[in-house]
Design brief:
This is LEA-like. It comes from Pinus hartwegii. The protein is mainly alpha-helical. The protein has one helix and no strands. It is rod-shaped, with a radius of gyration of 9 Å.
Length: about 15
C-alpha cells in the first residue's frame, strides 16, 4: 500500500470549500 499525502488532501479539501 502506498503512503498517500493525507496532509495534502486535507489542504486541497479546505481550499476547495
Amino acid at each position: 500500500s502506498r503512503d498517500l499525502p493525507i496532509g495534502q488532501i486535507s489542504y486541497r479539501l479546505l481550499s476547495a470549500n
